[in-house]
Amino acid sequence: MCRRYALHFSRGALAALGFTALTGLGCPAAFAQAVTGAPGATITLDGKQLPPPPPNFGGVIKEKASESQPWWAPRVVPPKGAPNVLLIMTDDQGFGAPSTFGGVIPTPAMDRVANQGLRFTNFHSTSLCSPTRAALITGRNHHSVGAGVVGEIATGYPGYDSIIPIEKGTIGTILRENGYATSWFGKNHNTPSYQSSQAGPFNQWPTGMGFEYFYGFVGGDASQWQPNLYRNTTAIYPFEGNPTWNLETAMADEAIHYMKQLKEIAPEKPWLVYYVPGATHAPHHPTPEWVKKISDMHLFDEGWNKLRETIFANQKRLGIMPENAQLTPWPKELPEWDSLGLEEKKLFIKQADIYGAYLAYADNEIGRVIQAVDDLGELDNTLIIYIGGDNGASAEGMLNGTPNEFTTFNGIPVPVKDQLLWYPFWGSERTFPHFAAAWAWAMDTPFKWVKQVPSHFGGTSQGVAMSWPGHIDDVGGIRRQFHHVIDIVPTILEATGIPTPQTINGIEQRPIEGVSMMYTWDKANVDAATRHTTQYFEMLGNRAIYDNGWVAATTPATRPWELSTATPPDVISGYNWELYNVNDDPTQFNDLAAKLPDKLKQMQDLFYSEAKKYNVLPLDNSTLSRWNTPRPNLTAGRTEFAYSGELSGVPPSAAPSVLNKS
Ligand SMILES: [Ca+2]
Question: 89 vs 651, which has greater pLDDT?
C-alpha cells in the first residue's frame, strides 16, 4: 500500500527532484493498495527550485489501462507547523497616530495584536508608497526592485523604472509554490503605470506576482466610495446603486469570505493574506457613523501643538519612547496653532476629525478580519504582522489642506474660505480631501518631518505590532531594535520554515537583503543588538544612512507640502548633512554633525558605497519635470483615438494626454 508508493518514490529519487520529505500519504483511502501514488499524498519541498522539476511518473504504463498502474504526483504542502500569515499595512499613517503607539485615535485592532505579541518602535519604511510596498513583498531594498520612487514618476534607470526584476521574486510566489493559498486585498501601486490598463501585460499585477487572488485598486490612491476596483484583472463596480458602500468595509468582507471559504474547502491549507487598505492616504473617506463617533470625542480641538505634547506624554507613559527621548521642536516652516484665526481652526479641526475617523474606521475593519481568523479557530496558527503605515503621515495637503488632493498635484493652494464651502461634506463622495501639513507633522510625533522624507524618522518610522500565540514569549513586550520593511519577508520565511529559493521559473534569484526579526521574539533577546546593522535611505534626492546606532542624514532641501512647485538645489552639493546617535537620541534631537565631522564623513562615504550596491544612482531631486519625463506610454506616436461605448478606469499612461490642451 503506502510502502509500495514509497518504493516508487524513494528517498534518493525525492532528493534528486528537490523534495525533502513525504508526509501524510493518504493511506486510509480504499484504493491506496491498488494504485501507485495516491491522490491524498503530500510532499514538502526543499524549496531551492520553484516550481520543483516535474516528478518522474511513478506508475506502470502497458498497452492496456487494465494492465497499467496509474500514479498521481503528491500535493505540495508547506513545512509542518507553518502558520497562516496575515500581513497588514495601512497607508500614510503617522507613527504617533494610533493609540497603540501613544496616539489619540483609537486603534483597538492594532492594540489587540500588540497585546498578544510585540510592539516594534524602531521599524522603518522607505518614506513613500510604491517603494515601501515593493520592498515589503520582495525583502529587497526599493531601488533593488526598481522602486526608487512611485511608479507615476518612474525614470529609465534600473533603480527607478518601476519594474520588479524576475530575479527578485515576491513572497507571494515563494509561499504559493510551497503550498500556500495567496491573496492580496486593497492597494497595489506596484504595477508599472504604463501596464495598468486593460491592455496589460498583467505579469506585474498582483495575480502575476504570485498572489492568486486580488481584490483592490491598482494605483496610488482611490475613492473609497467609488474606486477603480478590480477582482484579479477585471474591473468591477459593486458600489453602483449602493450609496452606503465603502471599500474599507467591502475589502474586509472579501477577505473574511476568502478565509472562510478556504477553511471549509481545504482546512489544512495555510494562507497568506496581504491586507493593505487605502486608509489613511487621501482621500479621507470614512463612513458618517465613524465621523460622528470620532468628532464627538473632540480629539483635535486643542490643535496640533498641544496634540504633540499629549502624544509624547502617552508615548513615555506606555514605554513607546524610552526615558532619554526628547520631543523634537515644532518647525518654523509650519504655523503655531495659537497664531490661527477661528475660521482656520474650525476647518483644520474638521480635517483632522475626518482623518481620525478614517483611521479608526480602517482599524475597526481590520479588527473584523482578525476576529474572523479567531472565529475560524485559526488565531493560534496565524502570524499577524500589522504595520502602521507605509510611510510617515502625509503633508501633501499643502499648508491649508484641500477638499481635493489633485489641487496639490497641480500646485494650487486652496484658501480656507473656499474650503469651508465643503465643510459639511468633508469626507463624503463629493470630496477627495487631505488635511493640512501641520497635522501630518503632529501625527509623526515625536519625530521630525513627514512622508516623502527618508532622511528623518518622521518620514520612515512605522509602528509595528506582531503576534503568533505560543511563539512569542514576551507577550505585550516592546522591542527597540532597528528594523526595516525589507526584514518582513525573511521573518515570514523563518517563521514558516520555507527556504529562500535559489531559482524561480529557472531564473537564478538574487539574495534577499533584509534580516529576520524572529530573534526578537525571545524574551531573553529584549535588549539584544539589532541584526540589521546598516541601512541606506533615499527618496527624491534626500538621503540618509543608518549604521550601528548612528544616522547621517541630509536636511530636506525642499518641503514635501510644496511637492511639484519646489525648486531643488544641486542633488550632490546642495545639501546640508546632520548626524545623530540614535541609540542615545532616538528622536534625532541633537545634531552632532559640527562636533563629529570625521564620523559624518565616514557615514557619508558609507551612504555612497551602499547607494552603488543597490541601484540608488543616479540621484535625482527634480520635481515637476519628473512627472512629465518621457516613459513608456501606450499612446506614444498616436494622434487619433477612437472610443466607443463604455470605457472606464483608463490610466493617464494609456490615455491621450490632455495637458495644456483645449
Ligand atoms: Ca503611502
Answer: 89
